[in-house]
Amino acid sequence: MKKQSGFILVCLTLATLVQAQNIQLPAPQKTGGMPLMEALNARQTQRTFSAKPLSDQQLADLLWAAFGINRPDGRRTAPSARNMQEISIYVALPTGLYLYQAQSNMLEKILDQDIRAQTGKQPFVKIAPVCLIFVSDYDRMKNQAEFYSATDTGYISQNVYLFCASAGLHTVVLGSVDKEALQTVMKLKPTQHVILTQPVGLPPESAAGN
Ligand SMILES: Cc1cc2nc3c(=O)[nH]c(=O)nc-3n(C[C@H](O)[C@H](O)[C@H](O)COP(=O)(O)O)c2cc1C
User: Fold this and answer.
1) How many domains does the chain divide into?
2) At 120, which CATH number?
3) Which among 36, 89, 96 is positioned nearest to 63, based on CA atoms?
4) What is the pLDDT of residues 48-103, one digit of tens each?
5) Which of 23, 88, 182, 207 has an alpha carbon within 20 to 30 A of 189's alpha carbon?
6) Share of the chain above pLDDT 70, in %
7) CA distance 176 to 160
8) Which residues line ligand 1 (CB under 6 A)?
């Protein structure tokens, strides 16, 4: 009996430790922002970043805009071919790698490692405080997996671009990525494929106010 309660205590402690590493995001702000036509006019690629972290509110808003749930049936802010919902967003932060759980509005800790340096080949990937990694699970698709994964990711990426334009953040979508190496470091399943990555951050301090 004593042994059993000791075991339960260890399990509960471990579960609490794991939970403590997850990040519960605040509710996303779904109102306000720049009018759509102005955001389209401001959308552009920027390759300079401040290393300053984004706030949890900025992360929550960014991820909801990217691919959050916007209807009671669980569908998202971006379309999905045949509603296969094969794309997941992994989030590389200095504190580790996380998986965006849209339903619970949480960042689930996957790795303790800072893998931002592996998310692209250009030097700014080490500076931007956040890198979104769009991963497709080909297991969820019957055919044309490459084509649909690319198109579905494109919609999400454009949501990120428009959110960043509205929120005064810098971003660049990256195809130039050593995807095999990144998949290995992320410990993905063989059916999971990195499609694109997208660093996000504040403008560099010298450019603040531009
Ligand atoms: C699929 C895709 C992959 C891209 N890959 C890279 C990349 O690896 N590195 C980079 O600096 N820019 C990359 N870009 C950004 C483009 O260079 C950029 O969109 C283009 O120069 C037009 O600039 P704009 O986004 O400001 O309109 C990529 C864009 C797309 C759509």
Assistant:
1) 1
2) 3.40.109.10
3) 89
4) 999 999 999 999 999 999 999 999 999 999 999 999 999 999 999 999 999 999 99
5) 23
6) 88
7) 18
8) 44-45, 47, 122, 172-176, 196
